[in-house]
Amino acid sequence: MGTHQHHHHHHDHDGKAPSLLLPLILIAGFAVVEAIGGWWTGSLALLGDAGHMVSDALALALAWLGSWVARKPATRKHNFGLVRAEVIVALVNSLLMLAVIAGIAYEAVHRLVEPQPVQGGEVMLIAFIGMLINIVVAWMLHSGHHSLNSRAALLHVLGDLLGSVAAVVAGAVIYFTGWMPIDPILSIFIAVLILISTLRLLNEVLHVLMEGVPRHIDIQAVEHALTATAKVREIHHLHIWALSSEKTALSAHVVLEDMRDWHPVLSDLRHMLHERFNIGHVTLQPETVDALTSGAAGCWLTGKEASEPHHECDDHDHDHPHTH
């Protein structure tokens, strides 16, 4: 009766791929139009927005690939499936966005030093169309799933939407006043806004990759809920980590008075963890008070003789103090 492992397989990603395909086509198609328009009008804001849209298209392509890979079933080599793929894709997208921001900032500074003529009216028209497309795509992504992967793609599109707004404003100012520096100034402003959001997302992605406790879960609350369950005496070796932004795993040792109570207790614990904390991947190991006291419970883990002292059998126990 060493361990019991239970998995809930929710196909959260089902349907995500088609929802990403149409935005991908829209973004990629207009990126070409905006790049040509930016080159023709001489607008950095438009060229920067086109750069955003190219990165958006790549982000959406990666997000589509990530969602497709994440739906693959578990195998002997990857027994949790490939759900971590969406986190890796979000990391790649974040790093890509940092590169785009750096490129825009560099070109903007160059434009401030050496202003170049911009056709304000044409910039306004092209940027306005781009803004409408970005609003539609952002709405599509926001109304879908809210995984790290889709949020990374949405971040790209929102950044591009801000870029389109900036390009419209820049075009209007240049058209009505002829003041050229507004073009690179607004480009830098948008780059800073996107940088803040990107760093926040990057921090969250790294937290998942470092096996941190999911930010929406209070580990002390989970521990209290486990120990409050009927016939549970103690909980120790409690670990909670995120497989992806939508799937959480937990493992723990559960101490009982009588091992005959284990199966109903296991059912109660599984149900409580799923309903209260949305934890679907649960691994619980039962132990009895007598076995824990004598050291036998620790010896189950290492194969040492039960007569040896408990602290020599389980050298990890000091890292996870018992909770009564």
UniProtKB/TrEMBL annotation:
Q: What are the entry keywords?
A: Ion transport, Membrane, Transmembrane, Transmembrane helix, Transport, Zinc, Zinc transport
Which spans are transmembrane here? 20-40, 52-70, 82-104, 124-141, 153-178, 184-202
Membrane topology classification: Multi-pass membrane protein
The entry's cellular-component GO terms read: plasma membrane
The Cation efflux protein cytoplasmic domain covers which part of the protein?
Answer: 214-287
Q: Does the keyword Iron apply?
A: no
Domain Cation efflux protein transmembrane, chain residue ranges per copy: 24-210
InterPro entries for this protein: Cation_efflux (IPR002524), Cation_efflux_CTD (IPR027470), Cation_efflux_CTD_sf (IPR036837), Cation_efflux_TM (IPR058533), Cation_efflux_TMD_sf (IPR027469), CDF/SLC30A (IPR050681)
Mind listing the GO molecular function terms for this protein? zinc ion transmembrane transporter activity
Compartments annotated for it: namely: Membrane
Q: Which NCBIfam families match?
A: CDF
Q: Which family does it belong to?
A: Belongs to the cation diffusion facilitator (CDF) transporter (TC 2.A.4) family. SLC30A subfamily.
Q: Which PANTHER family match?
A: CATION EFFLUX PROTEIN/ ZINC TRANSPORTER, RE54080P-RELATED
Q: What protein am I looking at?
A: Cobalt-zinc-cadmium efflux system protein
Question: Species name for this entry?
Answer: Methylobacillus rhizosphaerae
Q: What is the lineage of its organism?
A: Bacteria, Pseudomonadati, Pseudomonadota, Betaproteobacteria, Nitrosomonadales
